[in-house]
User: Fold this.
Amino acid sequence: MISISFGLHGKREGETIAPIKCREDDHMAEDKKPRALATQAAAKIAKFVKGNLSATLKAKEEGKKVAYAYIADGQDEIMRAMDIVPAWGESFAGVCAAKRDAEKYLQKAEADNFSRSLCTYATCTIGFDMMREELKGEPVPGAPWGGMARPDMILGSGQLLCDPRFKWPQATQHYLQDVPVFVGSMYYPPFDPNVDHKEQEKFYVKYATEELRELVKFCEKHTGKKMDRDRLAALVDLSDKTWDLFIDTYELRKAVPTPMDTGDAMNTMVPFTFNLGTQEAYDFYKDLYDELKQKIAEKKGVADDEKYRVLWAAGLPSWFALGDFQYFNEKGVVFPVEVTYRGGEKIERLGLPKTNDPLEHIAWRWVRYWTHWYDKARKRPGSIPKVERIIEYIEDYECDGAVFHSAFSCRSWHAGIIHQAETLKRVYKDIPVLIMEGDIVDISSYNEADTHNRIDAFIETLEAAKKRHN
Amino acid sequence: MTELRDGNALPSAEKYYEEYGLRAKELKAAGKKVIGYLTALGPVEIMTAAGVVPIRLKGNVSEPITKGDAYMETIVCPFVRNVFDAAVKGKYAFLDGMVLPHQCDSIDRTNDVWSSSLKLPYWHFLNVPHVTDDPSIEFMREILRVFISTLEKFTGKKITDEAIAQAVKSHNENRLLMRELYSLRKSDPPLISGVEMMKVLVAAMSLPVKESSALIRSIAKEVKQRKTPSVEKRARIMLVGDQIDDAAIVDAIEGAGASLVMDGLSIGSKMYWGDVDVTSDPVQGIAERYLRKLKIPTTFVGAGNTYQENLEARFGLMKQHIGEFKVNGVILFIYKYCDPYGFEVPAIKSFIESTGVPVLYLEDEYSTSTLARVKTRIEAFLEMIA
Assistant:
């Protein structure tokens, strides 16, 4: 296993990386040539990102409420059904990072004693909030596409996924004290090889459903509107269809050569992650599906000469260094599949019980999304669900190796990665693994030359493994 | 357990502090099952009712991490990493099992790492929610019932509601006794030093509840017999943080000429204020206590009508203690890579400062390797408030 480590890991003494001016419509860094996108669809993503931010700024004049929202909280359809405009902190911080312009916000938060070791999505956004408050709610000069509007409410979630999802809203309220905060709960049964999780699923679903009802009540109170149950049901149905289409589309990437890799997927995840429950998100994947079909028919791959297929096995990317995917591609390495941001599954594979209650359906979909790997993991001694998922992808997408990214400021995604890599080798087979270390937003942890050297070393292990195999 | 006689209670506590886990090892040798747990969220009442010996795990701040980093990322909470390192080095080889309550990401994201590395006969991840509304209490009851059923299977013994009610009574008594011992710190100077108190708190969390209560009772008796020494006035400090479980940092405070008179630690006042109510279903009272009465940053408190009301609900007990114990300086000691505590530093700092008491915020490691630096900061703070 190769481990890349930069200090915060990583900034060397005396070394500075200057902020780099970027094109306004590009979702990535522009220190040299921008990362080439393999699909036309991915090129449309900047409009989605910009549209989501702009929607928060326009909401006031349209008489809509804005909510600070956090991805993978199961709250999408509720917000959309009540015409609440979500302002996504993760997206805002990701854009700042991609533009290599997050430092001023990180420093602002740090000046009020938020440690650099905390989630940098959160500290970047809180720094922005602090600046906007100092400007009495006026736009912060230089914020990407005008930044986010001051919210009317903050919708967090306590769950098994990420502490900042409830600590970030609480910390934000310290600066926006008049803005009401709701924190609900979305849990799933933990994996225990000796305990049948199915016995527990019901009370987990009951709990998640009740918490979603609490969220509806909160939204009704703060919008002054009643939830339209039929509209909610229709949006939940639309989300199910989007889940299915999203997976159908991504499964086209099994083709050799793969028509799209993770570098693009870090863009094409935007509609699924931030626009679920909208027709635009569904239509986006329809276009992407058609485009990938066409590429497959024409045998157009991501790399000119596809030598190795690698899984992005875990971790959020360094948004300021998405160009590294292209570095892989130029060396003939492609990522036909990734765990990150693949936050859905074909609905039929989840075996969801029938219910007329759309909130209960969201709860079942959430719980089963996590637990549907458990039976497989139980059958392979020593395995865990996360590793079963990795094994399934390696086999389905014919991968030769796996790459993990460990971001220093995020325990949620990135703690436990060493164990996943070790377990993969122990219970499956000894395939080449690369663990990169860096951050999602904080560029001080990044050194491009070192990263590329380590990628080169990893490619050598891929070559050696292939030779052994042959 | 060492027989408690006049004058040997504090030395007994010191022994259990220095040789952490000594009593659990003795009980294991005598045929008892020993279950380790992490954090203040470990439901000791249920473990006591099951007839097992619960021991809250700690690391060793003087011991560098030498094995744990091969399994666990350095971005994980330094406390969790240190305890894990101790466990993989065999310090807790006497355990029959472990309970990992879901306190934070550093625990739930490493649950697999712990269980597969230690391979103990019993393992349980207790999925404690972060939210405290009524559905959360009901959910907490459900997960406590699952915990009970797994313990029953492991011990082969039914855990009756009567046994749980009895354990609740014993642990409530234990908390009351510890609060009484705390009250002996109100005098100026306090009758028991901060270093002594730290050793008592650590010893107490390693003992079965009745033995812990007997020890605290004896210590209180000894301490009450002390005469208040006439010494020059010293700053009265409160230490706030999560699991600080070593006397080194306290020694640094008291060695610099201050008295540590109170804490807001998860092995200290956070644990001992807030009893389990006696309820017809004893699990209900336990669920309510761990979610609503235990004021730790991983439970979201937001039911108030205003932000200020929520601050009072979150930190009000701390404010009360600042007044009762005549605290004139607070040291907020937060571990690096801790999102739950780290995200509330500005709120807690400004809340305490609004009472007129200055705050020193330190972000540091679970290690004495940085103690010299910490001492310098503490000395400067004490000079400032003198």
Q: What stands out?
A: The beta strands of chain B are 34-37, 53-56, 97-101, 122-126, 235-240, 258-264, 329-335, 359-364. Chain B touches chain A through 57 residues (CB under 8 Å). Chain B has a mean pLDDT of 96.
